[in-house]
Structure formats: structure tokens, C-alpha cells
Design brief:
Elements (H helix, E strand, L loop, with lengths): L5 H23 L5 H8 L3 H29 L1 H19 L5 H16 L2 H11 L3 H33 L3 H4 L1 H15 L13 H24 L4 H23 L13 H31 L4 H7 L1 H21 L2 H18 L8 H27 L7 H30 L4 H8 L1 H20 L3 H18 L7
Helix pairs in contact: 1-6, 1-7, 1-9, 2-3, 3-4, 3-5, 3-6, 3-10, 3-17, 4-5, 4-6, 4-9, 6-7, 6-17, 7-13, 7-14, 7-16, 10-11, 10-17, 12-16, 12-17, 12-18, 12-19, 14-16, 15-16, 15-19, 16-17, 17-18
């Protein structure tokens, strides 16, 4: 790909961030609409979980395939197809006549979304070739991740109150159309000079593993641990994981590049992403039910209560990206871990009459932690990796986020269902206590790994891994 001028590069970054904005918003904008969807489509707690997890689960399952496919067939082409599918899926979600159809259309949305984020990151890393400029661009990207997801509940609350829950899906369509037109005009096509072969066996194993695990977690409160279905799903998830590791290690061009995980910072960033986004998914899911079902706030006012999260993301996510570029990942990760842990502990005191200022303080602390965590995760995932594998490396980081959010919602919902006695209004605060302790635990993991994975020893493993990857890649023949 020929070198682009600075203005053109900035425009490419803007277009890629537009795709991230709608996919990120869709990750969280649905949360504030859950009580409305529950009433209109008669959805149980598990139905509300599936409304979120059908999207995040499919997204997580296909991100790796989309990243490597884009490296092969063309990043701009894959990006444009993703925009079209995402827009069509969004339109259909807004027309869904029942819960089953809504979940099905969320799957279609996720298929399109899987072709956007990792591909856009690959476009960015191939557009910004100078290391410092690339680090700043990745910092902007990581900041937009936090901003888009934090704005979701606020935007969702406004839309649900003013025009109904269906509008939260329709808002994606015009943004996707504009991004599609700008992509055709300004984003150059690029491919990897050494594209990897498609790995259908690895892809199927990933889908089986994630789907089985999520289904077991969500459905265990209603079916019980001894249910044959739950046992079968649990066994399938473990077996798929074991088979995936064995198969991918033997494959010269795997779907999941397990060699990446020899790098302690990369492995740590993946676990940090899972932990942070598990906390985020649980936090939003539990708070949505608390604010609307227990406190009986409208969607608009519930969204306003989460405004501190969005404000923290807008202010501190870009600053975190700049801090990562200047001082590395450790300061941002330490602050993120402390803040997420503190917010979870603050919410263990939640009751039906908790003062609003205390809630807003907890939301502010959580928002600060979430804003600080995205940039170091993204930067670590692609820094030091060969440019030719940018799509795969970025997809692993994005997959970790989506897996985390899926598991966060699944675990929080199941813990809530296990502890519930009576209606949500009567039994929520007691049943949700374990969920808030779990959120604090996620924050502690971020803090601990943020310290361990950013030291001199860890950086040495990253350098050795990058060197091996570069040498090994020169031995892989170019495929067509």
C-alpha cells in the first residue's frame, strides 16, 4: 500500500472509528432497553441475557476468522461487506416481532460487526507505519472503544424514552451508510503479502467452545447443575478447548496464533481484557435492572444515571491513550484495576434506597477505571507483532473483549437468578450482592496482571516472541 498523506491518514482513522462507534454502542445501548423489551416481548431473565449475549457471543466467535479473511481477500472489501450486513441486521432487529426473532437478528448484526473492528484495526496499523504515530492512532482507537461503549446507556435511554426500544437499532443504519460511502472514497485496499489459509476446523471448535460455555452458564439456574443438557454443554466446552489447543499447535497457519501467547504482555492483555469487560458487562446488566425495576426510573433517567461513566470515558480514555504512548501500559492498568475494584466494593452496599449521590460516585469510579483500561490492552495486543499479522493480533484482543462481556452478563445473570426470591423489585438487592463482589474481583485481576505483565521480564518475552514470529513467517510460502 502506498504511503498516504497525513490528512488522508487522519480521515482513514476517522472512518475506522465510525465503525467502532456503532459496534461499541450496540454492545451496551441494548442494556437500557432490556426492561422495555422484557415487557413488550415477554422475556424472562435468561431471555434478556440472550438478547445481549447472542450478539457478543457470535461477535467473539467470528472476529478471528474475519481478521484473517480480511488479510487474505482485502481489508477494505471485508470492511464494506461488514457495514452492509451490520446495517441490514440493525434494521431487522428494529422490526423483530418476537424475542426469538430479535435474538436471530442480533446474530446477523454480530456477523456484520465481526467484519468491522478487527479489520478496521488492521487498516489502521497498515496506514500508520511510523511507530510513534501508530501508537497515537491506536490510543485514539482504544479511547473510542471506551467512549462508544460508555455512551450506549445514555444514548439508549434518550431513544427508548422518546421513540421506543426499536430505535436503538435503527440509529445504526444511517451511520453505517455514511461510513460505507466514505470507505469507498478514501480507504485504500490492502492485503497481507502472506495471507493465512482459512481454518474451518478451528473456527467450528471456537464456536462450540464459546456457545456451550455461555449456554451452560445462562441456563444452569433454571435447569440445575445435574441437568443432562448442562453437563453435556460443560463437557463440550472443555473438549472443544482441548481439541482446539492440540489442533492449532499442529497447524502451520492456525486460526488462533497460539505463539502470540508466549508473550507475557500479550497473554496478560488478553486476560485483562476478559476481566475488565466481564466487569463491564456485569456492571451494566445489574445496574439496568436495579435502576428500572427496583428504583423504577424511566429509561431516560436510568441512562442519565450512567452519564458519569460516559463522562469519564470521554475525558480519560484519550488521556490513557496518550499516557500509554509516553509511559507504557503499567500506569493506566494500575489505575484501572484500583478503580474497578473500588467501584465493585462500593456497590456491595447497594439497597433499594441507596442515595443517588452514592450511586453516581460508584459509577464515576467505575467509569474512570473502564476508560483507562482500553488503550493499554489494544496497544499491547499489536505492539511488537509483525504488521503482516495485524488483523489476527487485533482480532485476538477484540475477541477477548467480547468473550469477557458475554461471560460477564452470563455469570451476573445466573448469580442473580440463583439468589432471587420473589420479584426483581423485592429480591434484587440481596441476590445481586455476590455479583458486585465478583465485579470487584475482576478489578483485582486487572490490577495484579497490570503489575506482573509490564515489568522487564515480561517485556523480554514479548521481544523474543516477536523475533520468532518474524523468522517463522518468512518460512511460510505465499498462498493465493
Amino acid at each position: 500500500m502506498t504511503e498516504l498523506g497525513r490528512r488522508r491518514r487522519m480521515l482513514v482513522l476517522l472512518i475506522c472509528c465510525m465503525s467502532l462507534l456503532i459496534v461499541g454502542l450496540d454492545n451496551t445501548i441494548v442494556n437500557v432497553a432490556l426492561p422495555s423489551i422484557e415487557r413488550d416481548l415477554h422475556a424472562p431473565v435468561s431471555g434478556m441475557q440472550w438478547t445481549i449475549d447472542a450478539y457478543t457471543l457470535v461477535l467473539a466467535s467470528l472476529l478471528l476468522l474475519s481478521g484473517s479473511t480480511a488479510d487474505r481477500v482485502g481489508r477494505r472489501r471485508t470492511f464494506q461487506l461488514g457495514l452492509v450486513v451490520f446495517a441490514v441486521g440493525s434494521l431487522l432487529c428494529g422490526l423483530a416481532p418476537s424475542l426469538g426473532w430479535l435474538v436471530a437478528f442480533r446474530v446477523l448484526q454480530a456477523i456484520g460487526g465481526s467484519m468491522l473492528n478487527p479489520v478496521a484495526m488492521s487498516i489502521i496499523t497498515n496506514t500508520f507505519t511510523e511507530p510513534k504515530e501508530r501508537a497515537r492512532a491506536i490510543g485514539v482507537w482504544g479511547g473510542v472503544v471506551g467512549i462508544s461503549m460508555a455512551l450506549g446507556p445514555v444514548v439508549g435511554g434518550v431513544l427508548v424514552d422518546s421513540t421506543g426500544w426499536r430505535s436503538i437499532f435503527w440509529i445504526n443504519v444511517p451511520v453505517a451508510v455514511v461510513a460505507l460511502l466514505l470507505t469507498a472514497l478514501f480507504v485504500p485496499e490492502s492485503r497481507s503479502p502472506r495471507p493465512r489459509r482459512i481454518d474451518p476446523v478451528g473456527q467450528v471448535l471456537v464456536v462450540v467452545m464459546l456457545a456451550s460455555l455461555t449456554y451452560a452458564i445462562i441456563e444452569v439456574p433454571s435447569k440445575g447443575w445435574g441437568s443432562p443438557v448442562i453437563i453435556a454443554c460443560s463437557v463440550a466446552a472443555v473438549a472443544a478447548l482441548a481439541a482446539l489447543i492440540v489442533y492449532e499447535l499442529r497447524r502451520p497457519e492456525p486460526l488462533i496464533e497460539l505463539r502470540f501467547f508466549r508473550s507475557v504482555p500479550f497473554s496478560g492483555a488478553s486476560v485483562i481484557a476478559v476481566s475488565a469487560f466481564s466487569g463491564f458487562g456485569a456492571f451494566l446488566f445489574l445496574n439496568t435492572l436495579y435502576l428500572q425495576d427496583v428504583r423504577e426510573l424511566s429509561p431516560f433517567h436510568a441512562g442519565l444515571c450512567t452519564l458519569p461513566i460516559a463522562a469519564m470515558a470521554v475525558v480519560f480514555a484519550p488521556l490513557s491513550g496518550r499516557l500509554v504512548g509516553e509511559r507504557g501500559s503499567r500506569p493506566s492498568l494500575i489505575m484501572a484495576g484500583i478503580a474497578i475494584t473500588a467501584s465493585g466494593l462500593m456497590l456491595t452496599r447497594l439497597t433499594a434506597t441507596t442515595p443517588i449521590p452514592w450511586l453516581l460516585a460508584a459509577y464515576t469510579v467505575f467509569g474512570f477505571g473502564f476508560a483507562m483500561v482500553n488503550a493499554p490492552v489494544t496497544n499491547t495486543a499489536v505492539s511488537g507483532m509483525p504488521v503482516t499479522q495485524a488483523g489476527v493480533a487485533a482480532a485476538v484482543a477484540s475477541t477477548s473483549r467480547q468473550v469477557g462481556q458475554s461471560l460477564g452478563v452470563a455469570v451476573a445473570g445466573s448469580v442473580l437468578a440463583f439468589g432471587m426470591t420473589g420479584s426483581l423489585r423485592e429480591g434484587f438487592t440481596g441476590a445481586s450482592l455476590a455479583g458486585w463482589w465478583i465485579v470487584a474481583g475482576y478489578g483485582a485481576i486487572v490490577l495484579l496482571l497490570g503489575i506482573i505483565t509490564t515489568g522487564r521480564w515480561a517485556k523480554g518475552t514479548a521481544e523474543r516472541t516477536a523475533a520468532r514470529l518474524t523468522v517463522d513467517d518468512t518460512r511460510i510460502p505465499v498462498t493465493s
